[in-house]
Design a protein that fits this description.
Translation Initiation Factor IF3, 9 strands, 3-stranded antiparallel beta sheet, alpha+beta, 6-stranded antiparallel beta sheet, 4 helices, Alpha-Beta Plaits, 2 domains
Length: 227
């Protein structure tokens, strides 16, 4: 009987030890946001041309001729070939709908470029020259930074400081002490900033372009062990 009681005691002790070993650690999770304001120093312009014609070949020929002029104009304005890429190239049937149904009336050829402008002082010139060369679709301008990594790093450091201060305040209020960091994750925002002031047709004179400033935000989520 004594041996049986002893075995029960050993089993209960083992269960209690296992439960203590599997008990999840106490943690505290906080978030912190870091913000850096900076003025953009580069831009990406989306521009091109779209033409309709009864013949697919003629629509293509017209678009190709105009886009060659547009390419020459923006390269003359200081944009290097490596910063120009085709963003859209489509040839679609043009369909008209009416009471009697739909019918094809020709074709639409669209050729759109993504143009990176590294010298913002020439941004208006690039847009205006492209329009004067025949570009009839300016889809918008996206502003950004040449050295985005350093801005993100600065914002991240600020976010970690905010998270640490918040965790210390919460730990003091709860009467506990912070331990080591268990995990860190982050969300980033604000790149790039887009201003879609789209228009069709030719520009009349140089376009005023105002970049303003934009925030670079990083939010971190930090989990701490509690002592």
């Amino acid at each position: 009987m004594r041996k049986f009681v002893w075995l029960i005691a050993v089993v209960l002790c083992s269960v209690a030890t296992a439960a203590a070993e599997t008990e999840p650690p106490r943690t505290l999770t906080v978030n912190g946001e870091g913000v850096v304001e900076a003025e953009p120093d580069m831009a990406v312009v989306h521009l091109g041309a779209s033409f309709d014609d009864l013949s697919a070949a003629k629509a293509y020929e017209r678009s190709n001729r105009v886009m060659q002029q547009v390419l020459a104009a923006i390269e003359k304005a200081g944009v290097v070939e490596a910063d120009i890429k085709t963003a859209e190239l489509t040839l679609m049937p043009k369909i008209e709908y009416g009471p009697a149904g739909s019918k094809q009336t020709g074709f639409t050829m669209t050729h759109r470029l993504s143009v990176k402008v590294r010298d913002l002082s020439r941004l208006a010139e690039v847009i205006d020259d492209a329009a004067q060369a025949g570009a009839n679709k300016i889809a918008g301008v996206s502003f950004g930074f040449k050295d985005a990594d350093s801005l993100m790093s600065e914002a991240r450091s600020k976010a970690m400081e905010v998270a640490r201060d918040r965790a210390e305040d919460l730990a003091d209020d709860a009467g506990v002490k912070l331990g080591k960091i268990m995990s860190v994750s982050e969300n980033t925002f604000s790149l790039p900033y887009s201003d879609y002031a789209s228009f069709e047709g030719r520009a009349g004179g140089e376009l005023p372009v105002m970049t303003g400033s934009q925030p670079v935000r990083v939010t971190v989520y930090v989990a701490y062990y509690l002592q």
